[in-house]
Each structure stands twice: as C-alpha cells, then as structure tokens.
Amino acid sequence: MNPLAYAPRLVRTLPPVRVHGRVLKAYAMFARPAERDRVPSPAWLEEQAATVLEGPAGPGDHEAGFLILHAGMERDYLLVSQWYDADMLKHWVRGVEVDAEGRTTLVPLEQRQLVACVWELEVVAFERDAWVTTVMLRGRLDRETLDDYLATTFEGWV
C-alpha cells in the first residue's frame, strides 16, 4: 500500500466512556473495511482509557474529553484527549498491543512527538469546533453546556 495514497475511513460514534470522574466521547475509526463492525465494549474502552488517565482530574482539568480507537492499516491506536483550562487540550497517543493470550496493552509510541494522523485530525478538528460552539461561545462550563458538548458527536467518512 502506498502511504501517500488517501482513502476515506469510516468513523462511528460509540457510547461515552466514564473514567476517573471524566466523561469522554468515544469514536471508532476503521482503515480496514472488513473490521467496520468490530466495535469494542464500553467496559473494554473504559479499562484502556483508565490506563492512560491514571487518576482523577487535576487542577485545571475539565471532566470532558474524547477518545478515538483507530483500527489502522498496520496497527491499532488509542488517542485520548481531555479539555484543560479554558481552551487547551491534553492529548495522549498509545499503540494497542495484544499478546498471545489476547490481553491488551497500551504502549507509548516510539515516535512520542506524534499527535495524530490526517484521519484522526478530522475528528480532533470537529471536537475543537464542538468545544467552541457549545462551551466557549457561551462563556461558561456548567451542566447544560457540558451536556450539549457531549451530545455533539461526529459520524461518517473522513
């Protein structure tokens, strides 16, 4: 496969994931057409996200964010993002490894400076716009704006 060739990928919205007092919108992205029906359980996603967000939210952390489970061409990835302060995003990228017994481990990437691929960036851009329109333009983060943010999701081709 030519890595410079672009082919659209399907993004599906999954149920929100609750981890250490946070609520994360969840997305699954598929590079391999045969795996488009392979959707992880919410419990599995919560378990994996908990290994990335290793404790309760810290000072300045918001209880909202999102994650992307990307079934890529060569490997799977989990991206976890959490809103911080008023207008910043914390972001972690992990590679998914499955051992011979079927146990999943998330590992930091060798190239630790990576943020996201072009497909994932489309979801990140959507989430940026959702944060601006549901929270920042209103100038507050309360139950109503948080619920509006969490209800604003993406599904389709990127």
Mean pLDDT: 93
Strand content: 35-45%
| End-to-end Cα distance | 19 Å
Query: How are the strands of the biggest sheet laid out side by side?
Result: 6-5-4-3-2-1-7
Helix content: 10-25%
Order of H and E elements: EEHEEEEHHE
Class from secondary-structure proportions = alpha+beta
Q: In DSSP terms, counting alpha (H) and pi (I) runs of 4 or more, how many helices?
A: 3
Instruction: Tell me the Rg in angstroms.
Output: 15 Å
Tally of strands: 7
Shape: globular
Largest sheet: 7 strands, mixed
Outline the low-pLDDT stretches: none
Please characterize this protein's 3D structure.
By secondary structure, the protein is an alpha+beta fold. The protein is built from three helices and seven strands. Strands 6-5-4-3-2-1-7 form a seven-stranded mixed β-sheet. Helix 2 runs antiparallel to helix 3 (143-151). It is globular and about 45 Å long. 28% of the residues are buried. The model has no long low-confidence stretch (mean pLDDT 93).
Produce the secondary structure layout.
Elements: E1 10-19, E2 22-30, H1 42-52, E3 61-71, E4 76-84, E5 88-98, E6 104-108, H2 118-134, H3 143-151, E7 156-157
Parallel strand pairs: 2-3
Antiparallel strand pairs: 1-2, 1-7, 3-4, 4-5, 5-6
Helix pairs in contact: 2-3
TL;DR of this structure?
The protein is an alpha+beta fold and 158 residues long.
Q: What features would you highlight for this structure?
A:
alpha+beta; globular; 7 strands; 158 residues
